[in-house]
């Protein structure tokens, strides 16, 4: 009997986990965070609510982990030998269609964060802080290579610049973020702010 209980509590397979995360993101796009329920996720994925709560604890954690899982690889794994190359490579990991879908999803989630402190906490712990740490490793490599002065005042704002460009592209220009836009923004704004020539 103990073996059966242990088997029931064992972690789901990575493939099943990926299916669940994809279903969560689909539901988020369809109904938004506030209308998303664990019942709906359970029905969509043919799983029990008990399994979902056991694996993820609740809706905020499940959503944050689904968004994190949807990210194309580890930021810190990118190493082209230059910060410009690294930033361009990071930008090129998603095609324009995927970027547009993810931008719309993130806009909705950012709005939900304001009304849901538990979602904000889950995002900080499971998505923002790990990604910031990965990104800071990429920037530290550029400092170690001598590309950026260690005392450059713009170092603390690289992520703000990049997220700002991504998030405000639709608001200001009524256009989705694209690879071409972000690469031109990196070359025109981010790298000059860091004292890195782009020619």
UniProtKB/TrEMBL annotation:
Q: Which residues bind DNA?
A: 37-56
The UniProt record lists the keyword DNA repair: no
Q: Does the keyword DNA-binding apply?
A: yes
Q: Which domain of life is it from?
A: Bacteria
Fetch the SUPFAM superfamilies from UniProt. Homeodomain-like, Tetracyclin repressor-like, C-terminal domain
Question: Which of UniProt's keywords are assigned here?
Answer: DNA-binding, Transcription, Transcription regulation
- PANTHER family given in the database record: HTH-TYPE TRANSCRIPTIONAL REGULATOR RUTR, TETR-FAMILY TRANSCRIPTIONAL REGULATOR
Q: Could you identify this protein by its name?
A: TetR/AcrR family transcriptional regulator
* Species per Swiss-Prot/TrEMBL record: Streptomyces purpurascens
